[in-house]
Amino acid sequence: MNDMRPMDNAVTDKTKITARDVHVHYGTTHAIKGVDVDIADRTVTAFIGPSGCGKSTFLRCLNRMNDTIPGALVTGEIRIDEADIYDPRVDPVQLRAKVGMVFQKPNPFPKSIYDNVAYGPKIHGLARNKAELDEIVEKALRRGAIWDEVKDRLHAPGTGLSGGQQQRLCIARAVATEPEILLMDEPCSALDPIATAQVEELIDELRQNFTVVIVTHSMQQAARVSQRTAFFHLGHLVEYGETGKIFTNPEDSRTESYISGRIG
Amino acid sequence: MTDISNDTPARGGSLLVTDARTKRRNRAETRFKAYGIAALAVGMAFLVALLWAILSNGLTAFSQTYVQLDVPLLEEKLDKDGDRDPDKIAKVSTFGYKPLIEAALTDLVAREGIETELDGKALTKILSDSAAAKIRDRVLADPSLIGQTVSFDLLASSRVDGYLKGRVSRESLARDKNLDAAHLDLVDTLREAGAVEKRFNLAFITGADASDSRPEQAGIGVAMLGSFFMMLVVLILSLPIGVAASIYLEEFAPQNRLTDLIEVNISNLAAVPSIVFGILGLAVFIQFMHLPQSAPLVGGLVLTLMTLPTIIISTRAALKSVPPSIRDAALGVGASRMQAVTHHVLPLAMPGILTGTILGLAQALGETAPLLLIGMVGYIATNYPDGVAEGFLAPNSAMPAQIYEWAKRADPAFYERAWGGIIVLLAFLLAMNLIAVLLRRRFERRW
């Protein structure tokens, strides 16, 4: 790990994801109320905010996972590399190969560690033969910072690992399909502090290759891993900017209240 | 309940003293446990009574009384010309064999030195009516036996069999024209001599049904084949249709009025009395589609209709029990809906689906009412089907229908066979349930 800390991180200027006036309705609930945001390439962007503020909902818009929820309606415009992902021509399956996701609770398939990682590359036809697949799996497990722990038991069930290992396995599984963007929905909320530290360290490394968007409940975590932070409140994007600025000198009073622990 | 009463415990009372309120709660708990145990005990008592009734009445069906008889196959009776021409031998009907049996019995009685007032014709009453046919079949199969004296194991008549099983006594024969007390004396003596013997009766399990006058010959084997072909139809149709419908409803269908309506109706169909499916089968499959009556194919179709809701409901429950995080994981790495289902959800739901299917089949196996209406009850299943196509299309009975048929026949010997049939049916159901449990254990996975 390089010793970059949030405060002195330079942020690249290239924009990877552009969202304009995004609204999400679940049935009669208006969950996201007009969010505009530009997410920079190869940075870690953290979404923070109190429970129910819509940060996870917005995250799930970015790879159209909301499509799987009956009654969810997304309006507005979200562009990844200038392509509107809600264009009718976009197949969400193809999109999700490009935008990987790590979930709140580690959810490895009840299969072997190897099969967990190899599944994505297999269905997307990324490997022509077994040797290539082996290579992809090893690379992904290395990127997931779990290779050394599991290399001797690749065919043991993924569900037999500890919680932290499972989550890193899920990260490895997500990066195995070579996505450009990695969405993480509170990836550490089910982990103990040591496992959390390992995953956070991993997230920082992933920044070199991926655009990472992470939803977190923990402001400390946002401060530790992200370069930019977006604060959501009641479906609005209240404030978005450099992480250092958000935590030290927020512009909006709601952000300040949340950061200082008065709301949320 | 108004438990907020006056005797709230005095704060600061000793923990070593149980206050009135706690005592009352403890008593309520003890009472509830007692009710539970009592309910269980009643249930167990019924179960024991049921099993006892079935076993005590039905086990005797698995043994049968046989008479060992040396029958002289006289050439002048069976093949007058002596040229062993099968056509000519076949012309001798079972009546032609009766004198031979009479002679053999008289000879046996004489050889054992038994004194009896019964003459040859009366003696044959200890044998089943099927005896002559059995000897004839053997001779037709092997004409070279003619001229020899061959030893046969012949079925004893149902009265004699009943005597050995304690069902028939000398008193009960007083008003029975089929058999006299003298026959029983004879049977006693022959039994001591080893010529009459009660032993395990495989023919009951593998054999065909027999007419009203020959209960000793009746078996459940043909009806078992009927049930087998029906279950094959049910399995082949209801498993794929049921699983496909459930997967669609559970994983793909939009949630709207229409799917809600379908859901409610599937639940309702599961509760429709089975005889309704029977009359539907009669109207649609027999009267409209002109499929053959009494055929296992039609029975299978009707039972498929009846089993489908069960399979759909259990399959949907199995699919629901797969955690959504697994679907998210698959979709998250870019699997399509279909891939998420076939690669991940379905394998995990498999034990539940198989269990539901087997239990559905077991239910269908024991179903009688719908078979009433398509003519599978009342059909005397005396012939084995010739081949697989016949197995589906030729008229047949089914195990529960056969049991019902036996239970309503007059001869008390059939009563025992009805109970015996129940034992066979229960053995199948037990085996199917066992398979369901084993499959569940074998394929159960943790996540």
- The shape of chain A, in one word, is globular
Structural class of chain A: alpha/beta
Q: Please, how many helices of chain A?
A: 10
Overall morphology of chain B: extended
What gyration radius of chain A follows from the Cα positions, in whole Å?
18 Å
Estimate the helix proportion of chain B, in percent. 55-70%
Q: How many distinct domains of chain B?
A: 2
| CATH architectural designation of chain A | 3-Layer(aba) Sandwich
- Would you count the extended β strands of chain A for me? 10
CATH class of chain A: Alpha Beta
The helix-strand sequence of chain A is EEEHEEHEHHHHEHEHEEHH
Task: Describe how the helices and strands are arranged.
The complex is a heterodimer of chains A (264) and B (447).
Chain A: E1 15-26, E2 29-40, E3 44-48, H1 55-61, E4 72-80, E5 83-84, H2 92-98, E6 99-102, H3 113-123, H4 130-143, H5 147-150, H6 163-176, E7 181-185, H7 193-206, E8 211-215, H8 219-225, E9 228-233, E10 236-242, H9 243-248, H10 253-259
Parallel strand pairs in A: 3-8, 3-9, 6-7, 7-8
Antiparallel strand pairs in A: 1-2, 1-4, 4-5, 9-10
Helix pairs in contact in A: 3-4, 3-6, 4-6, 6-7
Chain B: H1 20-58, E1 63-72, H2 75-78, H3 86-91, H4 94-111, H5 120-123, H6 130-141, E2 149-155, H7 158-164, H8 181-193, E3 196-200, H9 202-206, H10 221-252, H11 257-270, H12 274-288, H13 296-320, H14 324-332, H15 337-365, H16 369-373, H17 387-393, H18 399-407, H19 412-443
Antiparallel strand pairs in B: 1-2, 1-3
